[in-house]
Design goal:
6-stranded mixed β-sheet; 430 residues; 18 strands; alpha/beta; Spo0b-associated Gtp-binding Protein, Chain: A; Rossmann fold; 5-stranded mixed β-sheet; GMP Synthetase, Chain A, domain 3
């Protein structure tokens, strides 16, 4: 099954907690604090695997979690760092934040990596807090929480050449003739339901990847038929082969078909029509095909269209080899796959410093409890070790330095009022 859009949840590993310990050995005078630091949590990393062609592996597995770092030990021993979790994706995968829709990365090269969930750093042990004023601190940090987020993965097939056209114009047949691919071929429309890829290898040593895309119909760019689902894959192609069938039994006008497909491509992304496009007149072995082609050429000339036309019959192999040679020539003169407008804009974006939002906010609930929220203060709480009195006093000093005490007074807090931060509730003391 071909899957090209998925949403996954990732959670990086938490850093290990720092330890509170003291060294007491017979022949080690003044051993002092000896609590070691916690280890780094594992990150979740996407890595490109050129052997993959679909996001099918994510259909039944949506959650990826990295391991947490080891806790610090006594005798100044550090906790072990957790290994990163690597998730394989096919080349051509675009990664976005599912909540903000921010572009996080465009993965196109084999082995390319992208960290989508960064592991938390390990907490410091009490050996880090010893100083002249407090030579035996009972203070340590908990590990930093790992990043947790939802990610949208979108695959745009990486192919050098894309075959476009109405259903049943001969795209799959051409692919099967020039490559070793075995696409489904039948005498009814929408035989191709997913993109098919094949490698074309010419006698002179040149090769390229050819993609047979599901047939387009009128209104495809608005979601009619299968078009909107797979039009995104045309964005990656460097050369477009536009197949138009010369079969009088269909009762359709080849020129109108040609114009309609171009209209759908332009509506979806005008940049697609700026790429090299070759018109391929198919089924030239059928009776009446020559007359239809002559009429088609006349209408193109009247419209001022100068695109080169190749006449082929995939059944008899007429004109197929010259078409492939011409396609290879165009690829040699065409740059690597073009980015879409949005991707190009994101890639060129200059990130400037933006001041952070408020470190905390205070609200009062119906029961009179003051609720403190904010990413910065919640992170501080999660990294505070409150099992020792020194740790509690340090946390109180940090809250005071952030201005929370004063803010609570301004919000109307009095001595003895309850204050809640995450899952921790305490009394406000003047």
């Amino acid at each position: 099954m071909f899957v090209d859009q998925v949403k996954i949840d990732v959670k990086a590993g938490k850093g290990g907690d720092g330890a509170v310990a003291f060294r007491r050995e017979k022949f080690v005078p003044l051993g002092g604090p000896a609590g070691g630091d916690g280890g780094r949590g594992g990150s979740v990393i996407l890595v490109v695997d050129e052997g993959l062609r679909t996001l099918m592996d994510f259909r039944y597995k949506h959650h990826f979690k990295a391991n947490s770092g080891g806790n610090g030990q006594n005798k100044q021993m550090y906790g072990h760092g957790a290994e990163d979790t690597f998730v394989q994706v096919p080349p051509g995968t675009i990664v976005r934040d599912a909540d903000t829709h921010e572009l996080l990365g465009d993965l196109t090269e084999n082995g390319q990596k992208l960290v989508i969930g960064r592991g938390g750093r390990g907490g410091r042990g009490n050996m880090r807090f010893a100083n002249a004023k407090n030579s035996a601190p009972e203070v340590a940090e908990n590990g930093e929480p790992g990043e947790e987020r939802s990610i949208q993965l979108e695959l745009k097939v990486l192919a050098d050449v894309g075959l476009v056209g109405f259903p049943s114009v001969g795209k799959s047949t051409l692919l099967s003739v020039v490559t070793s691919a075995k696409p489904k071929i039948a005498s009814y429309q929408f035989t191709t339901l997913v993109p098919n890829l094949g490698m074309v290898q010419l006698d002179d040593g040149r090769d390229f990847v050819l993609a047979d895309l599901p047939g387009l119909i009128e209104g495809a760019s608005d979601g009619i038929g299968l078009g909107i689902q797979f039009l995104r894959h045309v964005e990656r192609t460097r050369v477009v082969l536009h197949l138009v069938e010369m079969d009088e039994q269909t009762g359709r006008d080849p020129y109108e078909d040609y114009e309609q497909i171009n209209h759908e491509l332009e509506t979806y992304d005008p940049k697609i029509l700026e790429r090299p496009q070759v018109i391929v007149a198919t089924k030239m072995d059928l009776p009446g095909s020559a007359e239809l082609l002559a009429d088609f050429k006349a209408k193109l000339a009247a419209a001022g269209n100068t695109h080169e036309i190749f006449e082929i019959s995939s059944i008899t192999h007429q004109g197929v080899q010259p078409l492939m040679n011409k396609t290879a020539d165009l690829l040699a003169d065409t740059a690597e796959f073009p980015m879409g407008d949005e991707e190009a804009t994101e890639a060129q974006k200059l990130y400037q410093y933006q001041p952070e939002g408020p470190a905390f906010e205070i609200e009062q609930d119906e029961e009179g409890t003051f609720i403190i929220t904010g990413a910065k203060v919640e992170r501080l709480f999660k990294m505070s070790n409150l099992t020792h009195q020194d740790g509690v006093m340090r946390f109180a000093r940090q809250l005071r330095s952030m201005g929370i005490d004063e803010a609570l007074r301004e919000a109307g807090a009095h001595d003895g009022d309850l204050v809640a931060l995450d899952n921790f509730t305490f009394e406000f003391v003047e």
